[in-house]
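Deviations from the work plan: none for this task. Representative record:
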Amino acid sequence: MNIEIITIGDELLLGFTIDTNAAHLARELAAVGIQIVRRATVGDAAEGIAAAVRDALDRTGAVITTGGLGPTSDDLTKPAIAELFGRSLSLDQSIVAGLERLWKARGRPGPLPATNLQQALIPQGARVLVNRHGTAPGIWLEDERGRWVAMLPGVPREMRGMLADELLPILQERAGPAGHVVRSRTVRTTGIAESQLAVQLGELARGAAGLPLAFLPGFDGVDLRLTARDMSPADADAALASGVEQLRARVGRFVYGEDTDDLADVVLRLCRERGLRIGVAESCTGGMLGARLTAIPGSSDVVDGGVIAYDNRVKQALLGVSETDLRESGAVSEPVARQMAAGVRERLGTAIGVGITGIAGPGGGTPEKPVGTVWTALDLEGSTRTTHTIWFGDRDEIRRRAAQAALDLIRRALT
Amino acid sequence: MNIEIITIGDELLLGFTIDTNAAHLARELAAVGIQIVRRATVGDAAEGIAAAVRDALDRTGAVITTGGLGPTSDDLTKPAIAELFGRSLSLDQSIVAGLERLWKARGRPGPLPATNLQQALIPQGARVLVNRHGTAPGIWLEDERGRWVAMLPGVPREMRGMLADELLPILQERAGPAGHVVRSRTVRTTGIAESQLAVQLGELARGAAGLPLAFLPGFDGVDLRLTARDMSPADADAALASGVEQLRARVGRFVYGEDTDDLADVVLRLCRERGLRIGVAESCTGGMLGARLTAIPGSSDVVDGGVIAYDNRVKQALLGVSETDLRESGAVSEPVARQMAAGVRERLGTAIGVGITGIAGPGGGTPEKPVGTVWTALDLEGSTRTTHTIWFGDRDEIRRRAAQAALDLIRRALT
């Protein structure tokens, strides 16, 4: 099945928003053997939307749009496409009732504003795609020749949910038994630079199990992605499994997970298995490590919390860091990282204490301790290990890398 | 001047690469008054490239492509478009010489491989766009009717350099001195829903000062963006200034900044002016508020730090929250939020203490306290205000919105 995607919005055309929906749609559809043959972006003007949809229908007869379904006057996707199909719009009372329920449930004052009713206007003969993550429903519209347009919202979370819940099942049913697919698997590494990783991989750096390999460096480390194309689902899965196994064997302990695995989640699972609880003491990361850990649902069975010891007074008052060490070794030093880890562990009564202290920049660097210098300490039931790294990048990158490295210190201690 | 952009590459259609070139081109061109009216993405197939370029030439006669200029067999942009224009390709000996020099300078063994010569094939009558950041030159091709295609490389760094060095000067010359521009300004609001904002804006919801208005809802609130098109730079700036003033007057205290302003930065500035320091006590946000504040360079002159009181034991031990209140009112309650704010303020000795406690989900909700329930308290030198909100969205969204709302509580107390 070949389809075209049209993403709609002035903000996309003007470059204010980078179009991540198109890439997400393409990956999800490719994984089930549906091919995007063309993609277009148009602004919030009815004629432009209609023209792009008409052209795409003439070529492939199968179109997914994103955006322009909301309650404001620049949301023109539905009327433009309904007119193209020669369908009138009418209020769907069950959607109106749902919008009113939500309005009340959110404790908003007064009746539902009339502008919101725009979202309940449904083209004659359309199928409604339920939005479980927002208010604007999606629309499936099909003509007598079997040509169709699926209209999804532009908000990425809503689009993703509706794609998975509503649209993919329809498309898979129409596509029939799966043909050739494009699938990929990713091996996630951290704590090793891209160039070192290439050396360690040797001939696998070019690919494994006949599949090409891509290096994708990011804040969290380097992802290794293998991609199988134009293969049956079974062949693709078998080649990917073999390739992943080869990569894992070569990269060893630098691998922390696969695909969308988050190192914070990996660490929580390791702690949960062992019944260990975590306390964090953060200076330069300012709460980022705590935020990463608590971003995972159910983290409360492992994470107690911790101290954001940004100022030295907090390091002393809440963590018991020695004033002498702060003065003599400086806030960014091994003894201070150690005392932060031990201090939070002791005060919270957790098995694990983590201390992070560093210079995130852009100011504050010295020749001895340049911007990017980070000391991290892990106190695991009284036994402490520390790491010292000079990270490169801007403030945000240094902080992200430091939080990831602290998580990796826990992972390595527990595996 | 209206143009269309065509980005070329299987990796874009398959979603493995997010298309950042299109957004960069749009912003750079809009700023000098050139408008992108449509954008398309096609794969690495000659027919698809030719068809998309032909359609765009028929519509606007002015096309920029990115990608498909490299030395490999899937780089088909040049031959496909040359054939469309009825031009033959021939080797440009000065480009060949340049490629050979570079090959030697990089210490590569043997003579330049024949595949690399593909980059030196230039369509008859084309103008070469020099690539100072890579090897593949760009191409400017124009027909007898003045319709043109500019072919840029796909590697973002090379594309950006060639756009600035080579293409923009050509386009500005063709656009003439009129210099109509597309410019925009954004008014950032928080604490008000998109639909309520539309009601409050009244007739301004459609636009202000003759400029159309876009509503851009996000985790941090709703951005209102006015865009001036087809105006002189002076007229655009005047209309935007007037429009922004009208929006600000109507939206009032919900406005926290403009364009790329970050509420955390706004709060830090307000505190700095008054010599106030901040301590945070976070439960459901788990460090996110601290991370937001300390993400801003120089935040150490305002932020002391705080306590991540994820577990109730931490709320008691480090913040002095009453066990009775925890038991009787629950961890997510007004008294606990108040005591968290007061507790962190007292222990850190700061003027401001902020407490956040809520249910981020997906588990933990009850009929009385559904997922999304958040209590926030601000203790400003002993005077406390609290807010209670039920946020919608997933765990990440609820936490982000709660952190943003806590920042806004500080902003409102100080303005």
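Chain B touches chain A through 92 residues (CB under 8 Å).
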